[in-house]
């Protein structure tokens, strides 16, 4: 596995790679890799000749109350994991490489951001699309792999790709789960023993909501039942429950379209998000 740290070297290397006719799969990350990231690399390896993973802790994604400096970093560990999961090239640029001093342009997202997690993180997705636009231009991938656990991010990346005519196929990959259904996250280790016993109920409630949707229930009824069920989960409180069209993230009146049923739940020290997507064909 090759490691590249500069934009110039990365562009030169990828031009040569593309000339060889290889299909390039890309997995963008902020490092401190977990099983969700690794599953994306596995999917990329299956569907691409050459896999690029980036590790870049993007300062533009952090809000005023989110500590960029405290974000966990362990490059040696990440390098080993990426190698084990089929990454061929690891792009690991510095902040100075990605945001030079004369860098005066930043993109702004106007759609799909004022719901779900984006509602409480103004500017977050501006940072996401700005850095992804840079990475897409540098790496020139054929396919980009993102986890559907953060389904709002996938929806916004979908809009970015279409709005800016990137010749990239977006692959949304299934959420990786524990045996009891809890969505895997590096934050799960911060759950207390009692909270960890309660946490799988989030996915169980989402499965019940999907069953209601498939059977033609009114979205407002499904949302109300889901909220009621979440209020019976102990040791925390509901952050949000929303049912929206997907990927447009607009309110719906019936389930006769692709739909996301999403929730966020706050335990004492951990905020968990999860979702389930209901296809129009169910």
Please characterize this protein's 3D structure.
The chain is of the alpha/beta class and 282 residues long. The chain folds into 2 domains: 2-173, HUPs (Rossmann fold, 3-Layer(aba) Sandwich); 186-277, Pantoate-beta-alanine ligase, C-terminal domain (Pantoate--beta-alanine Ligase, Chain: A,domain 2). Helix content is 36%, strand content 20%. The longest helix has 16 residues, at 124-139. The radius of gyration is 19 Å and the shape is globular. The N and C termini lie far apart (41 Å). The model has no long low-confidence stretch (mean pLDDT 94).
Name the overall outline: globular
By CATH, the topology of the largest domain is Rossmann fold
- Biggest sheet strand order reads 1-4-3-2-5-6
Q: Please give the number of β-strands.
A: 9
Helix content: 25-40%
Mean pLDDT: 94
Question: Element order, helices and strands?
Answer: EHEHEHEHHEHEHHHEEE
Binding site for ATP: 30-37, 147-150, 176, 184-187
GO molecular function, one term: ligase activity
Organism: Pseudalkalibacillus berkeleyi
Subunit structure: Homodimer.
Q: How would you briefly describe this protein structure?
A:
The protein has 282 residues and is an alpha/beta fold. It is built from 9 helices and 9 strands. Helix content is 36%, strand content 20%.
Chart the SSEs and their pairings.
Layout: E1 2-4, H1 7-19, E2 24-29, H2 35-47, E3 50-55, H3 75-84, E4 89-91, H4 95-98, H5 124-139, E5 143-147, H6 151-163, E6 169-173, H7 193-198, H8 201-214, H9 219-231, E7 236-245, E8 259-267, E9 271-278
Parallel strand pairs: 1-4, 2-3, 2-5, 3-4, 5-6
Antiparallel strand pairs: 7-8, 8-9
Helix pairs in contact: 5-6, 8-9
């Amino acid at each position: 596995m090759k490691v590249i740290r500069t934009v110039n070297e990365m562009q030169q290397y990828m031009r040569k790679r593309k000339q060889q006719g290889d299909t390039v799969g890309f997995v963008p990350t902020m490092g401190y890799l977990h099983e969700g990231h690794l599953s994306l690399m596995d999917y990329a390896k299956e569907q691409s000749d050459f896999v690029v993973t980036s590790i870049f802790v993007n300062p533009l994604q952090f809000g005023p109350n989110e500590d960029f400096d405290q974000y966990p970093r362990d490059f040696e560990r990440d390098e080993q994991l990426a190698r084990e999961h089929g990454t061929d090239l690891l792009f690991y640029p510095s902040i100075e490489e990605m945001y030079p001093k004369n860098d005066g342009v930043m993109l702004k997202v106007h759609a799909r951001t004022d719901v779900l997690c984006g509602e409480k993180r103004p500017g977050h997705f501006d940072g996401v699309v700005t850095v992804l636009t840079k990475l897409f231009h540098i790496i020139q991938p054929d396919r980009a792999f993102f986890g559907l656990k953060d389904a709002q991010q996938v929806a916004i990346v979908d809009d970015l790709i279409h709005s800016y005519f990137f010749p990239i196929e977006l692959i949304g990959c299934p959420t990786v789960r524990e045996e009891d259904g809890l969505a895997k996250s590096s934050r799960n280790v911060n759950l207390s023993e009692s909270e960890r016993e309660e946490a799988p109920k989030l996915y169980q409630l989402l499965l019940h909501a999907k069953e209601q949707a498939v059977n033609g229930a009114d979205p407002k009824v499904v949302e109300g039942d889901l909220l009621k069920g979440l209020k019976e989960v102990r040791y925390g409180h509901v952050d949000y429950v929303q049912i929206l069209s997907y990927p447009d993230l607009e309110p719906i009146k019936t389930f006769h379209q692709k739909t996301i049923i999403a929730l966020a739940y706050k335990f004492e020290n951990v905020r968990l998000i999860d979702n389930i997507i209901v296809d129009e064909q169910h």
